[in-house]
Design brief:
The protein has about 110 residues and is mainly alpha-helical. It has helices at about 5-30, 40-70.
């Protein structure tokens, strides 16, 4: 396995490879049509475009992240529950036999 610190570079490698594969295929078919040797032309166009696409993706990714952050709402912090509440650590009250929270203030004691 590759160490996780290389994840952004690996992501850029895979993304640029897939995108350049599709775009170079579309450009090659539009320029030449379905001709004998199309696959070789496409492979050459793909390799050349990938050589440019990969470093460009790595250079442009930080800019793209900043632009995206301007369009999305910041995450709101999640409210934390108290560590110790009336119901103990969970903050929930225990349930009585009827399935309702039992706050110990009005217990039903059956007649003797």
């Amino acid at each position: 396995m590759i160490p996780s610190r290389f994840a952004p570079v690996l992501f850029g490698l895979i993304l640029s490879g897939l995108m350049s594969f599709v775009v170079s295929g579309i450009a090659t078919i539009r320029a030449t049509g379905w001709i004998p040797g199309f696959a070789g032309l496409w492979a050459g166009a793909w390799f050349t475009s990938w050589l440019f696409a990969f470093p460009i993706v790595l250079l442009v990714a930080p800019l793209a992240r900043r632009v995206v952050q301007r369009f999305v709402e910041p995450e709101r912090p999640v409210a934390r529950q108290p560590l110790q509440g009336p119901g103990g650590i969970s903050g929930r009250l225990p349930e009585n036999p009827e399935g309702e929270p039992d706050d110990h203030r009005h217990r039903h004691v059956p007649p003797a």
